[in-house]
Design brief:
The chain is built from three helices and two strands, in the order ββααα. By secondary structure, it is mostly helical. The chain has one domain: Arc Repressor Mutant, subunit A (Orthogonal Bundle).
């Protein structure tokens, strides 16, 4: 599914680059793009937050 239409970034690309990202801008840099219209920024921020939560939960389960 496309998350960023302007840059044709799909959810898999975002998730792959969001795990240890510190910001939305860092995710875009890792994908080799820059934000355009900004409509996807809240969604990408949520994906970063979810990736962090999963990483913490996975570590706690070990």
């Amino acid at each position: 599914m496309y998350v960023c239409i302007c840059n044709a970034l799909k959810d898999r690309q975002i998730k792959a680059n969001a795990e240890d990202a510190k910001s939305v801008g860092e995710v875009f840099r890792r994908c080799g793009t820059r934000p355009q219209c900004g409509k996807c920024l809240p969604d990408i921020a949520k994906m970063i937050e979810d990736a962090r939560g999963c990483a913490h939960a996975c570590l706690a389960a070990e």
